[in-house]
């Protein structure tokens, strides 16, 4: 069985940067103009999530001063955003299944724009929490429906490559977001970051309205997802959860997302507070790590030609654990801050492989008529688990770099029991 060799991954042969560029050219050159246009629009839509998270990270200190609150309370705006994003996932997928892809997407983007504007005029940190929650509910429609459009429009053998392309282009967002956000804060304060989000939302509306076709096919009345009764949405979720492959890789995606959010939450503390570096340096370091994840997504696309997505997941998860141990070992050995930052770069690098691979594996069992509900539930589980991990990790943290490293390692190790249980059940069956 394919799962029996999940961890039997031969060493990677050497890849040059020219090889990576060739992968990129092949993926684009094998598409026609309409397919390229759709991929670009979907990339812009899925970039709203990382932009909404990373764009205002450099404004944390200023926001804490203006609202006269602690940095922990400002960081809670990230947690409320994750919570809203998780809940919103359950809304937009079923709506996309019943009413098509385009109309729900436009409605979600309008909600995102209005909430972004409301964040600018927040008078207290509690109001900001509330508006960030609403902003996330609207913004999550873009990434949910983008995943559905991929499974609608592209052949099954191409979806992994398309998801990898989306992950690669999405990697640009966290590269440039902190740098742009830092400049926006300098020019006009933290409010400018949310105004920029509103503008991005408006551009997304224009692209969707004029360039994105309706990709949902017309189904007969026998399809419960399109014409079902009042309880059909929840029945569809039950059907989706009965797919073991979906549950396994949605859980793994949630663990990886949680690890990434722990890194994002701790990075300003590690770089600026402990390392004593400026906001500009933090933005550059953050961008370099995001660039590494984008390169990792390139490699996932190439590796898929030789290895199954399951093997890629096992290999990347192993790398995360190894580099978490390296980080802890270097910390105990008294390594310099530059060495620790290099170890963190290596820790986040495999995440670029895991996101497209787990998405592809989780969505693979579903056809067009129920892909919306599957996409919604996937996102809800992913961000819900990430929300829980960030809350628990925040409570366990005592401000030391060692606890941060141990948290990284423990979260990475959570992937393997999920894979082991899945593999055992398959072998028994």
TrEMBL record:
Leader sequence residues: none
Domain Major facilitator superfamily (MFS) profile: 35-423
UniProt cross-references to Pfam families, sorted A to Z: MFS_1
Primary location recorded for the protein, binned into one broad class: membrane
GO BP terms, alphabetized: xenobiotic detoxification by transmembrane export across the plasma membrane
Membrane topology: Multi-pass membrane protein
Keyword tRNA processing: no
Compartments, as annotated in UniProt: Cell membrane
Keywords: Cell membrane, Membrane, Transmembrane, Transmembrane helix, Transport
GO molecular function, one term: xenobiotic transmembrane transporter activity
Membrane-spanning parts: 36-56, 76-93, 105-123, 129-150, 162-180, 192-212, 246-269, 281-300, 312-333, 339-357, 377-396, 402-421
The protein's name: Major facilitator superfamily (MFS) profile domain-containing protein
Organism: Sphingobacterium gobiense
């Amino acid at each position: 069985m394919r799962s029996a060799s999940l961890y039997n991954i031969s060493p990677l042969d050497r890849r040059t940067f020219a090889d990576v560029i060739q992968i990129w050219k092949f993926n684009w050159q094998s598409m026609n103009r309409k397919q390229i246009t759709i991929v670009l629009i979907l990339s812009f839509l899925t970039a709203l999530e990382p932009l909404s998270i990373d764009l205002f990270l450099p404004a944390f200190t200023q926001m804490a001063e203006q609202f006269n609150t602690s940095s922990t309370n400002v960081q809670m705006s990230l947690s409320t955003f994750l919570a809203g994003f998780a809940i919103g996932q359950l809304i937009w997928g079923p709506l996309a299944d019943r009413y098509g892809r385009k109309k729900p997407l436009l409605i979600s983007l309008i909600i995102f724009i209005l909430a972004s504007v409301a964040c600018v005029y927040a008078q207290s940190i509690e109001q900001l929490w509330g508006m960030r929650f609403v902003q996330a509910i609207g913004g999550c429609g873009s990434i949910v429906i983008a995943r559905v459009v991929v499974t609608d429009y592209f052949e099954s053998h191409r979806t992994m490559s398309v998801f990898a392309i989306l992950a690669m282009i999405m990697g640009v967002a966290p590269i440039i977001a902190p740098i742009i956000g830092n400049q926006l804060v300098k020019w006009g304060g933290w409010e400018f970051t949310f105004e920029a989000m509103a503008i991005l939302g408006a551009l997304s509306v224009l692209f969707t309205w004029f360039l994105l076709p309706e990709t949902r096919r017309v189904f007969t009345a026998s399809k419960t997802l399109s014409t079902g009764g009042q309880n059909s949405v929840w029945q569809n979720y039950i059907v989706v959860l009965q797919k073991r492959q979906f549950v396994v890789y949605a859980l793994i995606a949630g663990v990886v997302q949680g690890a990434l959010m722990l890194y994002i939450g701790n990075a300003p503390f590690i770089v600026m507070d402990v390392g004593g570096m400026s906001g500009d340096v933090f933005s550059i370091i953050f961008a370099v790590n995001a660039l590494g994840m984008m390169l990792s997504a390139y490699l996932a696309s190439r590796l898929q030609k030789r290895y199954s997505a399951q093997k890629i997941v096992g290999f990347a998860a192993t790398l995360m654990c190894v580099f978490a141990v390296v980080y802890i070992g270097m910390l105990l050995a008294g390594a310099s801050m530059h060495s620790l930052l290099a170890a963190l770069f290596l820790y986040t690098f495999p995440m670029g492989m895991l996101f497209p691979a787990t998405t592809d594996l989780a969505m693979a069992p579903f056809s067009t008529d129920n892909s919306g509900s599957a996409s919604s539930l996937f996102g809800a589980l992913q961000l819900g688990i990430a929300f829980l991990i960030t809350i628990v990790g925040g409570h366990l943290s005592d401000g030391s770099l060692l606890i941060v490293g141990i948290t990284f390692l423990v979260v990475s190790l959570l992937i393997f029991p999920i894979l082991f249980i899945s593999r055992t059940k398959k072998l028994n069956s």
